[in-house]
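Quick question, first post here. What does this chain look like in 3D?
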Amino acid sequence: MMMSGAKAIIECLKEQGVDTIFGYPGGMILPMYDVLVDEKDIRQILVTHEQNAAHAADGYARASGKVGVCMATSGPGATNLVTGIATAFMDSIPVVAITGQVETKLLGKDAFQETDILDITMPVTKHNFKVKDARKLVETIRQAFDIAMNGRRGPVLVDIPRDLFFVDVDYTPQPIKEKPVGKPDPDFLICAAEAVEEILKAKRPAAIVGGGAVSAGASKEIIAFIEKYNLPVVNTLMGIGAIPRSHPQNLGFAGLHGTKAANHAIAESDLVIAVGSRFGDRQTGNLSKYTQAKKFIHIDIDPAEIDKNIAGSLGLAGDMKVILNLLMKSPNAGNREQVLSDWWKQIEGWQETYEYDYQVNRLTVPWAMNQIAKKTAGKAYAYATDVGQHQMWAALHLHVEEPRTWLTSGGLGTMGFGLPAAMGAQMYYGKNRRVICVTGDGGIKMTGNEYYTIARLKLPVISLIVNNTSLGMIRQLQKVMFNERYIACEFDYSMDYVKYAESFGIKAVAVNTQEEFAHALQKALDDTENPRVIVLNVWRSFVEPMAKGGARINEFVEFK
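> Answer (accepted):
Ran it through. C-alpha cells below.
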C-alpha cells in the first residue's frame, strides 16, 4: 500500500514491536511528529534534552531487552544525541536513533542546522545510514533494527532528509522471522572439548560474568554451568544481575572497586572462564600481572573480542546459550565439591575476613545501600545509577537478583546517565516494577531537568541524590594520584536539592541521620503512585576497596 515516508516509518516501527519513542522536535523531524498525532499504538515521550532521549531509549532497551528508539532533528538535535549513542555503543545496547536532516537539494550547502551526523557518529554506532532515496526508507528501517539486535548488539542511526518524509512509498507489512541458530562446526566442537578438559584440570578455576550474559538472556544456562562445575563466579560492573547476588557461588562485583574476596579469587585462580566480558581495564588493572600464571577461556558473541585484550585465550565465539550447553555435556565432571574443596575453603576464608561491617552510627552511602537491599529483597524493583562513587557503592552493597534490573553506564562512564535511563526503564516497567535511581550531586546537575518529565508523567521513580558537596570520584583520584592537591572537585556553593525537586512538583526530603533515611525510604516505598526524591547529606569519604594502580587486582589502596 502507498503512504507517506513518515507514515511508512511509523508502520515499520510498529512492525518491529516499538511502543515508545523518546525525542525532541525540530523543523527537520516535524513530519514524523505530525504522523504521531494520530498514532494510538506508539507513545511519544517529550524529554527536556536530546541527550536524555538517547539515555531514556538506552534505559528502556536495558530493561526490556528490546530496541530502544529515540528521535531528534538535524544539527544540534542530532549532535545532542551523540553522548547517549556513545554510551549505548560502549555497553552494547540496541538503540535506533532517527534524525531529521535538511532536504536533499540542500545537502552539502551548509544549510540552516545541517550537520554531517554520519561522520560524527560513525565511531560510536554499530552502523549508520543516510537515506537519499525514499524507496529505500522501509528497507533501511528494517535493516537498522536487524543490525541493532543481531550479533553483538549496539546503536544504529538513520538520518533522513526532510523531503523524504512526504514522498509516497510502498509499504507492505513483513513479519519478523527469528534467525535460526546454526550448528557448531567440527573445529568449534574440538575447542569446546578442550575447554571442558581445561576446566576439569584446573585446581583453582573461577568464572567472570559480564554484560554479554545479560544481553544473551543466558542466566539460566550460566547458573547451571557454574553449579555443574562448582565454580566460584564474579560479576563485572555490567554483569551484575546476571546471576542472583544471593547465589552461594556468587562472590560479587570484581574489578577496580570490586569486593576483596572476588578480586582475590580472580588473582589467585589458575583458570578464568569469562562469559560475555571484554576484559576492560577497570576489570583487569595491570594486564601483565592479571594474566600471570593462569589460563583463560573466553566465551563471547563477538569474535573480535577474543584475544583483543588478553592474548592466547581459548576462544569460543557465538551464541552463548549454545556454547554453555555444549560445555555442559561432559559426562566426566566428577565430584567437583571434593575436587575443589581446598579452593573453596580459601575463598570462604576471604569472604569471612573481608565481610563488610555496616555497624556504624552515622549515615553513609554503603549503609543506605544495604538498607535498600533489605527493604526491597524479594520484591519487584530495578536499580539505575549515575557515574561516580555512588555507582561503586551501589554495585558493592545493593543485592541485584535478576537480569535487566541493574542499569548503569559501564564502558563510557557517562555522568548524567542515571535519571533519564531510570525514566526510560520505568516507562517500560509501568506498574510491574519500580525503579530506584542512585545519583550524585554532580550528575544530577547535568540531567536533573528530566525531573520535569518524570513529574509530568507521574512516573514513580525513587531518586536518591548523594550530596557530599563534591565530585567524589575525582576527589578520590586526586587523593590517590595527586597528593591531595584538590582542584575543581568541591561544590562550595550550596544548592537546595529539595527545593529543586519540589519545583517540579516532586515530594522531596533531605536526610542527615540513619533514622531519617530509614523513615524517608519507607515513605517513598509506600507511595507507589508518585516520584520521590531523597537527598542524602553525607560527609566526603572514599570508596573502598580500591585496587592499586599498576599492581595486581588484589592489592588495595589503604585510606587513612
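The first helix runs from residue 5 to 15.
The first strand starts at residue 2 and ends at 4.
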